[in-house]
Specification:
The protein has 13 helices and 12 strands. The chain is an alpha/beta fold.
Length: about 350
Amino acid sequence: MVTLADVARHAGVSSSTVSYALSGKRPISDGTRTRIEQAITDLGYHPNAGARALAGKRSHIIALVVPLHPEVHVPTMMEIAIAVTVAAREHGYDVLLLTNDEGPEGVRRVAATGLADGVILMDVRLDDERIPVLRAEEIPAALIGLPDDPAGLSCVDHDFATAGALCADHLADLGHRDIAFIGYSSGVYRRHAGYAERTLHGFRARAERRNLRFLHRPCAGTYESTAGTLARILADRPDTTGFVVQNESAIGPLLSLLRASGRTVPEDASVIAICPDPMAEQHSPRLTSVTSPKKDLGQVAVEQVMARIAAAAAGTRPEDRLLLMPPELVVRESTAPAPPRS
C-alpha cells in the first residue's frame, strides 16, 4: 500500500510538507503543491482518513454499497438508501455511496484508506465474495441481505422465505391448484441473489406441502419478455389460474397481457405480487401483495453498523445480530376464489 512517505520521496519533499498540502494547515507554494499532486496521481495514493482518528476522532462517514445494475429494481434500492441516509444523520454520520463495480476491491479500498468508519452492503448474494474481505479487514459492517454463512456478521433482511410461503398459502386457500411463479431474470438466479432464491425456496416448499402444481419462470420484466413468459406458462400449463410475481417490472405487462388474452383479473386469474404497498396500490385492479417496510431495513442496518463501530472503538468484540423482518399479506382486488374447472 502506498504511504505518505512514498509520496514525499516521489515529489522530493518532506513527509510533513505532504501532510500540510493535504490538510491545508500551512501554505504551500504552487510548484510544490503541483509536484505533490502529480506524485499522488502517479502512485495512486489514497489519503488515509483513519489518520485523522489518532486523537480518538472518526471520519463520521458510513459507506453504503448500492447496486445500480440492470438486474435490480433501482427505485426500491434508492428507497432503502434514503432510509439509511436519514438514520445515519440521526447519529451524526454522513453516507458515502459506492455504486456499480464496488465488489471486494471497493470494500478493501474503504478499509485500507480509513475512508469510512463502517460499511453497509446491499444486494447480498448467498456466496457473496465481499464477505471474506469484511472478515479479513475487520471493518465494522452491516448487511442488508442474508448470506449462506452469516457467522461473525450483523444482518437485516426481509424474511423472503416466509413471503414466498404466504403467496402459496393465499392462493391455495382460494382453491387455486395450478400456479405460476414469475421471478427475476435468469441472471439474478445465476448470481445467487439471496432475496430471489430465498423467496423461491419458501414458495416451492409451501406449494409442495399444499399439493399445488406449480412452475417457476424467470422474466426480464420488459413487455416482450413478459409476453414470452406468459405464453410459455399457458402452453405448458393451460389450466394456470394463479400467478405470483416477484419482479416489479413485470407486474404491469402481466396485467395487460392477461386482459389481452381474455382473462379477467381476478375472476379468471388471480395475481399476487411481492412488492411495496405503493406499487400494489397503483395498479388496476389494486394488487394483493406481500410486503415489508423498506424504511425499517435502512434504520436497522444503521443501528447495527453503529453498534459495531462503537465496539471497535472500545476494543471489544461486537455482538453478531441477525434480524429478519416479517412480511405482511395485504389482500386487495387482484385475488379471488379459483374459477370452476371446465
